[in-house]
Amino acid sequence: MRLTARSFAGRSLVAGALVLTGSLGGCGVLPPLPEPVPSDIVPSAPAGLSPGAGGGALSPDGFDAVERMAVRIRNVGCEELSTGSGFAVDEHTLITNKHVVAESEELEVSTYDGHDITVGTTSTADLADLAVVRTTDPLPSFPELAKADPKPGDPVTVVGYPAGGELTVTQGEVMSTTRDPLNANLGEVLLTDAPVEPGSSGSAALDAKGRVIGVVYAKTADDDSLLVPLSTLQDMLADNTAFTPAKGC
């Protein structure tokens, strides 16, 4: 397991935007209880991706296509402020975690270059920790979805905004499938050793060709990351009843 460009120099003990692994607050994480989320994490300076690392050509500003599809989500909540990540699946649709957008008074979405995106509607799923955010403004880039779930040993790349900071890219591999420890009805999820940090929840997990294979939603006490598999995401996007309008304050 290694950290690539725009990755953190250090690792924390919890995942995502930490409210499952998701906010800078806290609401269900895997036992044992994590230590307090550090407030002094500073990403390393951008160093540029290796050729083909994200499965797409670099833009004139030096960002890869899969980096340009990742967004930072700032949830101005009913009682607290939290951060998370998300990614585009078409020009006006973002995927993230349900816990990233939960109890929101306002969602603030920004792109890799700091451009603010106007949010239209937000819907959340009951079965899995997933949410769909429709945007009024067009999104700069969106990736291809893989044709099938990955297998143990397959490489995985996570692109997101840990701690609500700079864009990071971390790499590892799929270790196994496991029963979802947080959402009993979901079934099988993917276990990987790709590093994630507070704020990574909702990040896209990509294969070696830059195609989406899953969505980061949690981290175990052993510092492994948990993904909602691509197949689950696709099944739920195809089901008109899977998502319902998100409840605000």
Write the layout of secondary structure elements.
Blueprint lengths: L1 E2 L61 H4 L1 E8 L3 E10 L2 E4 L1 H4 L2 E7 L5 E2 L1 E7 L5 E5 L19 E6 L7 E12 L8 E5 L11 E3 L5 E8 L5 E5 H8 L5 E3 L4
Q: How does this structure look, described?
A:
It comes from Promicromonospora soli. This is Trypsin-like peptidase. One of its GO terms (molecular function) is serine-type endopeptidase activity. InterPro entries: Peptidase_S1_PA, Peptidase_S1C. It holds the Pfam family Trypsin_2. By secondary structure, the chain is mainly beta. It is built from three helices and 15 strands. The chain has an eight-stranded antiparallel β-sheet. The N and C termini lie far apart (40 Å). The N terminus is likely disordered.
Short key terms for the protein model shown above:
249 residues, 15 strands, eight-stranded antiparallel sheet, 3 helices, Peptidase_S1_PA, mainly beta, Peptidase_S1C, serine-type endopeptidase activity, disordered N terminus, six-stranded antiparallel barrel
Shape: globular
Reported for the largest beta sheet, the result is: 8 strands, antiparallel
Strand order of the largest sheet: 6-5-2-3-4-8-7-15
Helix content: under 10%
Strand content: 25-35%
Tally of helical segments: 3
- Give, in order, the helices and strands: EHEEEHEEEEEEEEEEHE
Distance between the termini: 40 Å
Average pLDDT over all residues? 78
Low-confidence stretches: 1-62
In total, the number of strands is 15
Structural class determined from secondary elements: mainly beta
Provide the gyration radius in Å.
16 Å
Organism: Promicromonospora soli
GO molecular function, one term: serine-type endopeptidase activity
Pfam family, one: Trypsin_2
InterPro entries: Peptidase_S1_PA, Peptidase_S1C
